[in-house]
Amino acid sequence: MELTLAQLAEQLGVELRGDAEVRISSVAPLQAGRPGALSFLANSRYRRHLKDTAAAAVILAGQDADDAPVPVLVSDNPYACYARALQLLYPQPPLVPGIHPSAVVDPGAAVDASARIDAGSVIAAGARIGRAVHIGPGCIVGENVSIDADSRLVARVTVLAESRIGRRVILHPGAVIGSEGFGMAQVDGHWEKVLQLGSVLIGDDVDIGANTTVDRGALQDTVIEADVKIDNQVQVGHNVFIGAHTAIAGCVGISGSTRIGRHCTLAGGVGLVGHLEITDNVHITGMAMVMHSIREPGTYSAGTPLTKNALWRRNAVRIKQLDALVRRVSVLEKKQIK
Asked: Do residues 205 and 230 make contact, with C-beta atoms less than 8 angstroms apart?
């Protein structure tokens, strides 16, 4: 879609400085700007590209506006403003309702007349597909699953075990919701499966990435509250609770019965052992291994940062010597006290 800067500024609710009649039809990075393209500056590392940009206009903060050689849209949060601009410039095509001839819909399922079921999808008995829901190709919706209005299963998504999906939820390709939780009891040297009798409850406006798995609960439901954003290839174990507005990056592993608060962030590769409690407003940096509950808000890190191999090997040896070193220091301190 093509819009003038004046139209963009009005719909975004931001200040326009410069030619209001400039027309915008695409987006581009600062360093690859071109006529008709809107760019943005949200990270100071890219500020060096601002003075030479060939973009038609730039979204930026007020303190950077005087250095821009092109018209600007001034925002307190340029990246969020850019996200909203994308929605205006690249609107989703209207949903065309209907059921593809190759889809299999059980007579006992309830599919709203405004929903769309694409090729090869299977809708089981008792499933409830709400208003304007889009079930993409190759999806499986199990028995008694409910999917509320305006949600989308992009492709090859599996939703099982009476799971309940809220409004405006997006499940990306390969996501599996309601798979069997990993419950095993050891008996006489072998493993006995523990039946998983719970389900999964997903709130409104949740986004779940490709090939992410959310296990159903053992007795209680696994719960993902509203506006949670989960990246690709994340494992959410059974009985996990994730509070509203939390964001989880790729390859995070969350063990069963862990409770994560609201407004938290987990960076890539973080691991959490089971039965922990993470309070609200906790931010965990990449590759950290969380082995204890966190009861105070803040930023937490763990792990060994990358170094040259020779230095890393020397430090690894010294870490093994720490216990002996502490004991020696303790002995010396006691001698000094005497």
From this structure: no
